[in-house]
Amino acid sequence: MIEKNLDKIELIDIPKITADDGRGNLSVIEKELLPYDIKRVYYLYDVPSDTQRGGHAHRELVQFLIAVSGSFDVVLDDGKQRRNFTLNRPFKGLLIPNGLWRSLENFSAGAVCLSLVSDVYKESDYIRNYDDFKLFKGA
């Protein structure tokens, strides 16, 4: 089950393998890490620091975000409260359940946001207006 309570959502550790000989690190995402099959992968990059991405909710889609380079903030909103998560480690990810409004902001120079999602793109799954989101949540 995917946690939808904002107070219980936490960053998830991604397994990290460190080379004994100083050749760097490797992180692996296998099917046991996420509670869904990955249907689409995309990434955001060259996002100006004063720009906001996201600004929507999904009816069904679930996504896992990773800052593979740099950092950015993810603000989650359940219609009653908001919570901020800073992603800045390539071995930590944020699992975002459906039904939450999300905004990505404060991108550092060179930040890359990797998104692993539970479905292919479907415009009908998006809620792009915050007032419509509040109605969707029953507020």
Automatic annotation (TrEMBL):
It comes from the Bacteria. Pfam families: FdtA. Coiled coil: none annotated. Residues 8-135 form the Sugar 3,4-ketoisomerase QdtA cupin domain. InterPro entries: QdtA_cupin_dom, RmlC-like_jellyroll, RmlC_Cupin_sf. This is WxcM domain-containing protein.
